[in-house]
Amino acid sequence: MQEFIAAERYPEAYRWLLIELLVRQGRFGDAEEVARPTYGHFQNGLLESLVHTLVEAGQADVALRIVEELEAAKALEAESDWALTNRVWLLGQAGRYEEALAYAATLPPEEQPYTDSVVAGVLECLGRVDEAVELLRTGEGSSPWEAVEVLARHGRGAEGLAGMPSFADERAARRRRFGW
């Protein structure tokens, strides 16, 4: 695959296959090195894909370290919006729930709707189910169905369905939110 990467005009597809193979083999540092040349490429960057692959492999701490190192080196300019909003998710995946909530509280108001669902997930992991449901029901960036899912996971599905807005109310709220 390295030969294809070196010879191809658009090597990212081969890089991606090699990254997946290396992560499956537990060679996380090697996977990071394969992805590194793509960091900062607007359309062909593989940082986000690497992070998700590492998290799926149970290596959230490794993924978080990579993002933190890139942030410290000011090397995330092209991915700065992604890193800003996904850091909450990544901290939660690493089991650093309180830190995730503290970080989410520092986000600018315009970014917070993008993290409502993730913050609710962190709250749920901490056993703060009612707070998670309230955020999902009132937050700008979430769907009322997400609250139903949380309650159903905790044996409270009927309560979740009872609290659902009508389809007409949900459609009207979506129109207000998105200006349709």
Main sheet record: none
Q: Report the radius of gyration as a whole number of Å.
A: 19 Å
Globular, elongated, flat, extended or rod-shaped: what is the shape?
elongated
Number of helix segments?
A: 12
C-alpha termini separation? 47 Å
Q: What level of helicity do the residues show? A: 55-70%
Uncertain spans:
none
SSE layout and pairing:
Elements: H1 2-7, H2 12-24, H3 28-35, H4 47-56, H5 60-72, H6 80-93, H7 97-106, H8 116-125, H9 129-138, H10 144-153, H11 157-162, H12 167-178
Describe the structure.
- With 180 residues, the protein is mostly helical.
- Helices cover 68% and strands 0% of the residues.
- The protein has twelve helices and no strands.
- Helix 5 runs antiparallel to helix 6 (80-93) and helix 9 (129-138) runs antiparallel to helix 10 (144-153).
- The radius of gyration is 19 Å and the shape is elongated.
- The N and C termini lie far apart (47 Å).
- 28% of the residues are buried.
- The model has no long low-confidence stretch (mean pLDDT 87).
Keywords:
mainly alpha, 180 residues, 0% strand
Task: Give a summary of the structure in a few sentences.
The protein is mainly α and 180 residues long.
